[in-house]
Each structure stands twice: as C-alpha cells, then as structure tokens.
C-alpha cells in the first residue's frame, strides 16, 4: 500500500481489515502480473530482421488473392439488357455445385396455386412424393 494515503482505522475495523499473508501474496502477484501482457510468455517464432520483415509483408500482400477465383471485370457503359439471357442462365448454373440435388420442377408459375387458390404456398403438392401419408418433398419427410 505504498504511495497511498493511509489513515488510521478504529481498532475494531483494523482487526477485521488486516489482510492475511495469503491475501497479500495474491495482491502482490496480481500487481506484478498486470505489468506484463498475459500473451508474452507464449512460444513464438523468432523476430525477423527489418528488411526480411518488409519482404515478408510484401509477399503476403501479393499473395492475398492468388488462390481466389478471378471475377469478371465490370462492364462499363452497358445497359442491363445488353447481355443475352442465355449467358445469364449459364452463369447462374455455374454457381451451383454439380452434385446438388435439384427438386421437382414447380407445378405452376406465379404466387397463386391455380388448383387450390393458395397464395404464397409451396409450388409442388407435398404428398406427391410421400407414401403412407408422410408430408414429404422429393422423398424427404418434413413432419417429424
């Protein structure tokens, strides 16, 4: 408690307040450990020389996008309708994984089911694929 203004406590409070030796050790060790980062004692690679560190950082910046797929350059001064729809469809197909299981084609277009009149419902009849009354889509049961 050096450097802290001390004032005299009444004798009853002094008996209660007097810290035990274990508490003193704890506070001293806590004070000493706060001086250093708790990450400092961990093992780490040796520091590089400043020139080598600069070379390393330059190489790291150069390789940042080396393994990512290149994006097509943006088309400037082109209207959105200038690209044919076939190309747009092929780009959409390329984004999907080839092993992706596609579901059944929708039975109708739009939001309203022409048979039931339901708006915003499923595009396929759920019982079509299921057997024994299971609510399933493409063989996957959805009512547990």
UniProtKB/TrEMBL annotation:
Q: Where is the composition biased (Polar residues)?
A: 58-70
The Gene Ontology biological process annotation of the record reads: mitochondrial respiratory chain complex II assembly
One Pfam match, given by its short name, reads DUF1674
Bias (Basic and acidic residues): 94-115
Q: Where is the composition biased (Low complexity)?
A: 74-84
Q: Which domain of life is it from?
A: Eukaryota
Annotated region (Disordered), positions in chain: 31-50, 57-144
Question: How is this protein annotated for GO cellular component?
Answer: mitochondrion
Q: Per the similarity annotation, which family is this?
A: Belongs to the SDHAF4 family.
Protein's recorded name? Succinate dehydrogenase assembly factor 4, mitochondrial
Lineage at the top is: Eukaryota, Fungi, Dikarya, Ascomycota, Pezizomycotina
